Amino acid sequence: MPTLGLGTWQNDDHEEVAESVRTALEAGYRHVDTAQAYGNEAGVGEGIESADVDREEVFLATKVWTDNLAHDDVLASTEESLEKLGTDYLDLLYVHWPSGAYDPEGTLSAFEELREDGRIERIGVSNFEPEHLDRATEVLGESPFALQVEMHPLLPQRELREYAEENGIELVAYSPLARGEVFDVPALSEVAEKHDVSEAQVSLAWLREKGITPIPKATGEEHIRDNLASLDLDLDAEDVERIDGIDRADRQVDPSFAPW
């Protein structure tokens, strides 16, 4: 899984999302993340199709929404997602939230069927807590490939990071810039000034230092390229210690159906 992806949450303008995906892929991104609930899978698919990059080079992920998590609905809605995205397979399919129609046995057995049929290559989960991960692992007979959660220097998710490391689960960070809050944190600004980069690059590089794949949303080319440049930023031990010391737990995404 490429270590930086393009997030597309809250970007449901068809032309805009298609252009941002095309721009990102041609700039060097190789990981695109979407979801049924975002209402933009068709635009994402158009962006992939229009980019001068082969589909096989793109790590494409989407998520099954809570209303579609009954066994048969997983199968049917995933076929709809594949059609919208203009592809015959997904590199990664997530359970979006462990809520709504989610049932570990019924939901995950459908995911296994999709993998056996070659419609998806990997099974992921999103917004799961350790107890949900334990149950999913029990049902699957293996750990999910990836766990996607909100994570950034203001919500470091230490417990989930330890769980993922112990169980060989890839961590993917959504809202890795804390929906813009990272630009107003003195410690991040000081590290950014030291390296002559943006606070966004510092936050993304910090996540990478932790072995986490961030998927920042960006629409304009400037932000797309600025986030990509974080791959060239190497934080030293002092930088990482400074960011680790921020010691905040500011969650930006907290719907009423969240499991925590």
Q: Could you write a compact summary of the structure shown?
A:
The protein contains ten helices and eight strands. It is α/β, with parallel strands linked by helices.
Describe this structure in words.
- The chain has 260 residues and is of the alpha/beta class.
- Helix content is 42%, strand content 12%.
- The chain contains 10 helices and 8 strands.
- The protein has helices at 14-27, 41-50, 71-85, 104-116, 130-140, 158-167, 186-195, 199-209, 221-228, 237-244; strands at residues 6-7, 31-33, 59-64, 92-95, 123-126, 146-150, 170-174, 213-214.
- Strands 1-2-3-4-5-6-7-8 form an 8-stranded parallel beta sheet.
- Helix 1 packs parallel to helix 9, helix 2 (41-50) packs parallel to helix 3 and helix 7 crosses helix 8 (199-209).
- It is globular and about 55 Å long.
- The two termini are 27 Å apart.
Which descriptors would you attach to this protein?
10 helices, 260 residues, single chain, alpha/beta, 8 strands, eight-stranded parallel beta sheet, globular
Q: Helix share of residues?
A: 40-55%
- Rg, rounded, reads 18 Å
Mean pLDDT: 97
- Gap between N and C termini, in Å? 27 Å
* Structural class label: alpha/beta
**H/E order of the elements?**
EHEHEHEHEHEHEHHEHH
- Strand order within the widest beta sheet: 1-2-3-4-5-6-7-8
Q: Please work out how many helical segments DSSP would assign.
A: 10
Q: Could you list the spans in which at least 5 consecutive residues all have pLDDT below 50?
A: none
Biggest sheet record = 8 strands, parallel
Beta-strand percentage range: 5-15%
